[in-house]
Amino acid sequence: MAKTVGIGVTGGIAAYKIADLVSRLKKEDIDVIVIMTEAATKFITPLTFKTLSDREVLVDLWDDSKEWKVQHVGAAEQLDLLVIAPATANFIAKVAHGLADDLLSTIVLANTAPLLLVPAMNSNMYKNQAVQDNIKKLKDYGYMVMEPNSGVLACGVTGQGRLPEIDQIYAEIKRLLFPKQDLLGKRVMVNAGTTCEDIDPVRFIANRSTGKMGFSIAQDAQTRGADVILVCGNSPLEPPLGVEFVPVWGAEEMCEVMQKYQPACDIIIGAAAVGDFRIKTRAEQKMKKTGNASEELVLTLVGTPDILKTLGKNKKPKQIMVGFAAETENILENAKKKLDSKNLDFIVANDVTMEGAGFSSDTNIVTFISRNGEIESLPKMSKQDVAAAILDKVVKLL
Ligand code: PMT
Questions:
Q1: Domain end: 157, 177, 197, which one?
Q2: Residue 203 shares a structural domain with residue 275
Q3: Rounded alpha-carbon distances, angstroms, from residue 265 to 262, 322, 368
Q4: Which atom of ligand 1 is nearest to 324's Cα?
Q5: Ligand 1: which of 324, 340, 369 to mutate, most ligand atoms within 8 Å of CB?
Q6: Ligand 1 centre from 350 Cα, in Å?
Q7: 287 located within any domain
């Protein structure tokens, strides 16, 4: 069935580039509904988009639509994907706060299809904390946000804020509209987030993992047709849609749950930051200080189960297991040891001291190390793209 994509154009200088995007999508027989904000019409005329999309362009919230009884609801219902490009700082703020004061923002709220935002603006505006907080909010809502490119901007400044190349946006739209189904019928278990080990009823030991890496893998596997179980320690993220979400607390619980599901799984991916130690004896009551500022507290720690090692011992024939190695030194050497000791098919090493890699960031810089000694280093990529690369490699092994 033909796909319909909504292209929301907001008022930035990059708006003119979207004409090319619309033209390319139409050539692929994709139905394109262009929705413009008033500000966007100052940069490029609706007539350009009307001609290229072969459809009325939607601008005014109060227009009487011939096509739909209630314009913003009717238009939203048609969409397989909604893309906002360029997304200005103002429009990003509106979406982050649920405002609905023009046609495009009402369509965003009425829309239930995936939403992709493509920010483009001056680099200082992009770096501004308020804009970054709004972008973070959008991601937490489950919306996809493309990273702007760096280079010379229309305002003359050099920095990050350029609209990604139309080729990149087009490729992303194609990937979202026609996702690969190469994991159809496969059962994938992913773990993510940090495990937590209680000290007393109110305190625990954890680490800096947010779950972003594991959630991206779970989400991509689900999009590619797999049945996905996401076993998750502590994480502030919303569970991805369509995934069986199993929350856990400590390493022992995570291990038990994963052992239970292991026999039914074709693929197991360990992205969680599992604590290697727990408190030997958890205090029953909240531990009290004596009031003496120089007092010392000694906690005795004991090891937790190595989850992947445990699963690796019971690996079924043809079951694929992938682990991560979070390293701060001797990256390849340490990662190779983990690959062998946990009986993995390949390991994803990340140097967690590098900027834009490892814990918390939206990006990662990884190296794949395979059992046959093959080493493949990837550049800095969004965690979504790293997830896609991991699953591409898994598919080749199936
Ligand atoms: O969650 P994010 O904020 O997005 O951060 C992503 C990440 C940095 C957590 C992720 O990219 C990552 O590196 N995950 C693995 C973290 C880790 O525990 O690495 P490790 O080198 O200590 O462990 C090696 C492998 O064994 C990992 O797959 C780990 O899940 C697993 N392990 C470790 C200890 C243990 N007791 N049981 C395990 O199964």
A1: 177
A2: yes
A3: 5, 13, 22
A4: 28
A5: 324
A6: 10
A7: no
Query: Is 257 among the domain residues?
Result: yes
* Nearest alpha-carbon partner for 61 in 114, 109, 112: 109
- pLDDT digits over 239-298, tens only? 887 899 999 999 999 999 999 999 999 999 999 999 999 999 999 999 998 888 888 999
pLDDT tens, residue by residue, 89-131: 999 999 999 999 999 999 999 999 999 999 999 999 999 999 9
| pLDDT of amino acid 65 | 77
270 close to 345: Cβ distance less than 8 angstroms: no
Cα 129 to ligand 1 centre (Å): 30
Domain with 256 in it: 187-282+296-397
Claim to verify: residue 163 and residue 203 sit in the same structural domain: no
- pTM for the model stands at 0.75
**178 C-alpha to ligand 1 centroid (Å):** 31
- Distance between first and last Cα of the chain: 29
- pLDDT tens readout for residues 139-186: 989 899 998 988 888 888 888 999 999 988 998 999 899 988 999 999
SS3 of residue 23 by DSSP: helix
- Our answer to whether residue 196 is catalytic in this structure is no
The CA 323 to ligand 1 mean position distance, Å, reads 7
Find out whether the beta carbon of 308 lies less than 6 Å from any atom of ligand 1: yes
Angstrom distance (rounded) from CA 78 to CA 314: 48
- Identify whether 382 is part of a domain: yes
Please state the atom number of ligand 1 nearest to the C-alpha of residue 311. 39
In short, whether 212's Cβ falls inside 6 Å of ligand 1 is yes
53/147 same-domain check: yes
Nearest-angstrom CA–CA distance, 272 and 215? 10
Co-location of 205 and 171 in the same domain:
no
Nearest to 324 by CA among 307, 305, 310, 303: 307
Q: 83 near 173, Cβ under 8 Å? A: yes
d(CA 48, CA 179): 30
The total of structural domains in the chain comes to 2
**Within 13 Å, how many C-alpha atoms sit on residue 207's CB side?**
20
The answer to whether residues 135 and 20 belong to one domain is yes
Atom index in ligand 1 nearest the CA of residue 342 equals 26
Query: Is the shortest distance between the CB of 272 and ligand 1 below 6 Å?
Result: yes
CATH number, domain at 208? 3.40.50.10300
